[in-house]
User: Fold this.
Amino acid sequence: MTRSFWLEDVPSTEAIGKHLPSPFNLRAEPVREASSTYMDSYDWRLTTKGGPLRIDRDGTELLAVRETAGGETTAWTPVATMPHWPQDLPEGPLRDEVLKASQIRALLPVAEVTRTIRRLAVLNEDDKTVVKMHLAEADARIPEGTPVPPDKGRRPGAEHGLKPRLTLQAVKGYDREREAVAGALAEMEGVRPTDSSLLEETVTALGRRPGDYSSKIDVGLQPEITAVEAARRIHRHLLDTLEANVEGARADLDSEFLHDLRVATRRTRSALTQIKGVFPPDPLTDFKERFRWLGQITGPTRDLDVFLLGFDDYRARVPATMQGGLEPFRAFLERRQREEQQILAKRLASPHFRKLLKDWRAFLERPLPTHPDTLNARRPAKVVADERIWKMFRRVIKEGRAITEDSPHEEIHELRKSCKKLRYLMEFFQDLYPRGDMQPLIKAIKALLDNLGEFQDLEVHAHKIREDAEAMAAEGSAGADTLMAMGALVDDLLEHQARVRGQFASRFADFDAPANCKAYKALFKPAREEKRA
Amino acid sequence: MRILGVYNNKGGVGKTATAVNLAYLAARAGRRTLVWDLDPQAAATFYFRIKPKVKGTKKVLGGKRDLDEAIKGTDFDNLDLVPADFDYRNMDLLFGDTKKPANQLRKRLKQLGDDYDLVILDCPPSVSVVSENIFRAADALLVPTIPTTLSLRTLEQLLDFMDDNDIRVPTWPFFAMVDRRKRMHQETMAAESDKRVLMLDQHIPYASTVEKMGEARAPLFEFARSSTAARAFRDLWREVSDRLED
Assistant:
């Protein structure tokens, strides 16, 4: 256990020595320069699940350390180079921990701290070290090149001084001595005990907060606001998320930047059509079209990302003797991904894209007209939300009940679209309803969407593999064994799709259960008198 | 967690110097290392400037929390110590009370779990329930041996005792306190190297710097890092750590 103090000024060794109770003495040890880099995924998966990864640099040696938010080390290992992925860490408990928390996300250098540490040993009457004292003066910065969400965090590269800090490190078995020293120090002028860890202090000084980026919808609506104000806030929130992912998606730091950017785009498009009658139709049509374009240009790269992320699972789906035959397909996908990524990067840097974000931001932030001429703008957000959600729920039920075992695939796809609209609407407006009521409903629609999504993905992928096989055959990059393995994979995917289709009826029945329907009715069904004439 | 015993039935063979200096090198190499000073003479405890306990063995043998509470950090990173306890004189009696007296030490150490990579036991010079505990707890036993006929006889006796009692701990004797000026040392070592492969390759020379550890109250490397003896301990550690990894 450590005890920390903030210092107004850095005291001399003598000044500290004078304050120590008998029989303690101080011995100065060589000053050390230390530099550490805190690493985490863009969405803080490590910090929010136990603690970030810290890379300590000592000369040319690098040490990777996982520590809790409170600063306790849980695992460490020497590393040869700065890791970019959890998989870059040497095999062992640290790598397992980091991989489990970060999963498919890359490790980014969130903050760099350089410290000049004056070390003092507190000795007892045997000249045995009983407490280790560190006086540290530190500078922190966000490393250049680290993506930072807009308006969160200071400019990368700029140095920020931290308050001088004195830390007492316990030597095991000498807690009593540490407490005596801590007590004496607390009496000194300009010395203030603190519970905040170096990590917390660093992150705060750099204007960031663990969790300041998350792809989850968290708008923070109040019940009394108007529908147009709610819509503006929802859209601003989605735009923030979208913008926060542009840099990482352009640089392809990991596949989740583009994924989150696409989800924000899709939600924006959904909100534009689903929160009806709040914006004037004129700019609305234009923005709908432009966001559709954004969905289109980001599609190809994302499709390839999904393929590559799931490739090992696909490999495992074909017989062992055929698995090797899929490797040229992987190489093909990787090449295609690089090509599409380049095109995407250009488009995300284009004036066309920049202008879309700028125009949209300006539209969302311009003052509201005093007399909006749209139907719903001035009505309470909750009333409009009730209507929209209730309507979409009834559509989902109607479409779902109409699906039989012989229904064409298109009907399933249509139902999926309606379900997504319903889910997004509930997520947009969730703050207006009791959390305990809303969470189970969102969970239930997600469960149904999982089934529908898997059904569609399998179909799309099977179709794509056939196309890719033709393309590979045409360019001569696939031999017979590759084409056969791809054929076997398509067969397996379609078989699997049929199984997923078979599960639909029971998944939908779960959603259509009386309890779920009753909950929707109770929460969203508009009262008659509130209905518009 | 690997457990290394340092043992010899005879006293004054450089046993504690071996335990302390190897522990220091292990800790420097990044292994979380614990020295358990089981010798009531408390030499290892003294070298680390830690105070021996006057009583408390009964508590230590009671469970993990008690052992953990007895541990003291040394002045060196990664290196902790269970201080000697004058009550170890009564340890034979204590172990004698328990159901399986010969496995008590191993049981206590296992309870430390993943806290340490290496535990070095500095053992008292005796053949007793305590030493049997040490033999059964250890993954390997280092036996510093002076190259004299008499010392080799003691080593034979130790090996016989282990055979008789079905103790199968790998035993790694090495020559210690070697004085090249003494003909007997030279002859014994030469004869031994012809005869058996039992002894480790490295040996520790007799050196006054090792004796100065008592004055400096520190491992050799803290005050005589480039001495011949320091070099010999480094070589010995390399050989021992290679063997521990096998």
